[in-house]
Specification:
single chain; 191 residues; 25% strand; elongated
């Protein structure tokens, strides 16, 4: 509640319990979200004339997101985060898409996901596209509303390559009617 921006007068002590849950979330933006959370929370303790304290419980006290938030060092955080994203080719250094294959039958989903990834690899070679194809792998929430889910992550330096691969794959791919294919370009989260 405190992190949501509500002003509670008289708050001088804030504790963040197990910030590692946010930091180790399976999403490349987890450090950014953790930094944002800690920065917001620390701004809520000790407003006005009162001094405030913030306690952070973590197993990763040396992580740059935590240290940067504690030091109120936005520039330092951005420098480290951009270095991390550049090394692993995440936005803003690339464009992403998540192709999700889902269905009620786990074996059928596994087969369809492998077929989709193979077709993408074939289309990539034929069209000479510069796209990295990662997966298929189980989605972080591998079963959602009774449906098994597999994900294929696509990374490309050029948005046009990403769109061409997705379009040609959709046009050529034939999957059983029990299988659902969904595509999220520039996903907000990786779940």
């Amino acid at each position: 509640m405190v992190a949501k921006g509500h002003d509670f007068p008289g708050v001088t002590l804030v504790g963040v319990i197990s910030v590692d849950g946010s930091l180790n979330f399976p999403d490349f933006r987890s450090a950014e979200r953790t930094f944002q959370l800690l920065t917001q929370v620390s701004g809520r303790a000790g407003r006005g004339n009162q001094h405030g304290k913030v306690f952070v419980q973590t197993m990763s006290p040396d992580h740059y997101a935590i240290n940067s938030a504690i030091a109120h060092d936005c520039h330092g955080f951005c420098t480290e985060e951009l270095k991390f994203r550049d090394e692993l080719d995440y936005p803003p250094f690339s464009h992403l898409a998540i192709v999700e294959v889902s269905g009620n039958n786990e074996a059928a989903v596994e087969s369809a996901a492998k077929k989709t990834a193979a077709d993408m690899s074939r289309q990539k070679r034929i069209l000479h596209l510069r796209v990295s194809i990662l997966g298929p792998a189980a989605a972080p929430l591998s079963i959602l509303r009774g449906r098994h889910r597999k994900q294929i992550l696509l990374k490309a330096k050029y948005r046009n390559d990403l769109h061409r691969l997705i379009k040609t794959t959709k046009d050529s791919l034939e999957l059983p009617s029990t299988i659902r294919l969904s595509i999220d370009i520039d996903p907000v989260d990786m779940l």
